[in-house]
Design a protein that fits this description.
Elements: E1 29-33, E2 38-41, E3 47-56, E4 61-69, E5 75-80, E6 83-84, E7 87-90, E8 94-103, E9 111-121, E10 124-134, E11 142-145, E12 150-153, E13 159-167, E14 173-180, E15 186-191, E16 197-198, E17 200-203, E18 208-216, E19 224-233, E20 238-247, E21 253-257, E22 263-267, E23 272-280, E24 286-294, E25 300-304, E26 307-311, E27 316-324, E28 332-341, E29 347-357, H1 360-384
Parallel strand pairs: 2-10, 12-20, 22-29
Antiparallel strand pairs: 1-3, 3-8, 4-7, 4-9, 5-6, 5-8, 9-10, 11-13, 13-18, 14-17, 14-19, 15-16, 15-18, 19-20, 21-23, 23-27, 24-26, 24-28, 25-27, 28-29
């Protein structure tokens, strides 16, 4: 409903030119006023108008309140503190806030309706004319707008559109939201600066609210341009907003042992070989992929190759890793972390369990010592056992 405010004159017992100040210099008297003495309202609805009763430099005044002139069939009530009142006392240099509630009869049509509010005290009377116009109701209308209808980023970007929803209708409405998006794209709505997801929101007539449309998409979404649409709908109107997302290519590295193994073996102080496979599961080539390792103290690692200038999307490359455990490493399991880092912040790591074995050389030496000891015993028994 269109709200039309019209400034018109009204009659009171004293001049009101200096009324706006809290305590006008040289002004005395009691005043009955309203900010909107003429306004347009919707048909069939009760209207409440704020009134003000002020006392400047006069002793306390008790004034009886009434509405002697009421439009035909209407019901008019003066309220104070939310309750019907018949009089009010206003102390010196204070204000009493009142309300005029106007209830139209059923079937009241467009037109102007006139009322007079009266406040009477000892020897004085204040009259305040009020005009209410019932106008034609505006057609239902919704509007969706955004400052940034197109966003761009990678498949891991958090896409958020700030959308303003305007209820340009004559009635309050509950607005429901939905979206059309590509397959596997998920669109959720929240009120601006809020975190709770919503599917609808109430908006008063002539007002607007901001909402946020968040779009989540799969990490493997190919690079390209994507279109989606946001819909707002009330009982009597609807609106649509077209949005766009541009997905940029992105590399995504993965590391694993050859055949999926994440383990290997090595001997203390000796070079051991391990094959690692690096893959690019992203939608763009990985640039300058460099390899490194974090191994137990005293271990040595090297890679062949140490760096890949380019790894195309969807491709993989085996990497030879040489691991040399410390000469003092004892038999057992150890963990080594191998990393791949590419230009643009792409990084991936994998943990490998390396089992250190006892050297066969030391085993042979031990067997030799035992054999020699047995020979010495046999020789001693054979020689001295005859005596």
């Amino acid at each position: 409903m269109l709200l039309r405010l019209v400034a018109v004159g009204f009659v009171v017992s004293m001049a009101v030119a200096a009324y706006a100040a809290d305590k006008p210099s040289g002004v005395t008297g009691v005043y009955l006023t309203t900010r909107y003495p003429a306004l347009t309202v919707r048909a069939g609805e009760t209207t409440t108008i704020d009134l003000s009763l002020r006392n400047f430099n006069h002793p306390p005044q008790q004034l009886s309140l009434s509405v002697p002139e009421v439009a035909n069939g209407w019901k008019a009530t003066v309220l104070g503190g939310g309750q019907p009142v018949a009089s009010a006392i206003v102390a010196p240099d204070t204000e009493e806030k009142l309300q005029l509630r106007l209830e139209p009869p059923a079937g009241t049509g467009p037109g102007e309706y006139h009322f007079v509010v009266e406040a009477r005290g000892d020897g004085s009377g204040l009259k305040l004319p009020v005009t209410v116009t019932i106008g034609q109701e505006l057609p239902a209308k919704l509007k969706l707008t955004t400052n940034f209808p197109s966003l761009r980023g990678t498949a891991t970007t958090s896409f958020k559109f700030r959308v303003t929803v305007a209820n340009d209708s004559g009635r309050d409405a509950t607005i429901n939201f939905s979206a059309d998006a590509p397959k596997n794209f998920q669109v959720t709505f929240t009120e601006a600066y809020g975190s709770q997801q919503i599917i609808s929101i109430p908006i008063e007539a002539g007002k607007s609210k901001d909402i946020e449309a968040s779009v989540a998409l799969p990490r493997d979404t190919p690079a390209g341009d994507y279109k989606l649409a946001v819909h707002a709908k009330s009982e009597a109107a609807s609106a649509d907003l077209d949005l766009g997302i541009t997905i940029l290519g992105q590399a995504r590295l993965a590391l694993a042992g050859e055949g999926g193994r994440l383990s290997g073996e090595a001997y203390a102080g000796q070079d051991g070989q391990l094959t690692v496979v690096v893959r690019n599961d992203g939608s763009e080539a990985a640039r300058d992929v460099e390899f490194s390792a974090t191994a137990p103290e005293g271990w040595k690692t090297s890679f062949d190759p140490k760096q890949l200038p380019d790894l195309a999307a969807g491709k993989s490359q085996p990497i030879k890793v040489t691991l040399t455990p410390s000469p003092r490493a004892i038999a057992g399991d150890y963990q080594t972390t191998i990393r791949a880092n590419a230009t643009g912040g792409q990084s991936e790591s994998a943990n490998f369990r390396i089992t250190v074995l006892t050297s066969t050389l030391w085993g042979a030496v031990g067997i030799g010592i035992i054999a020699i000891a047995l020979l010495v015993v046999v020789f001693a028994v054979a020689r001295f056992g005859r005596r």
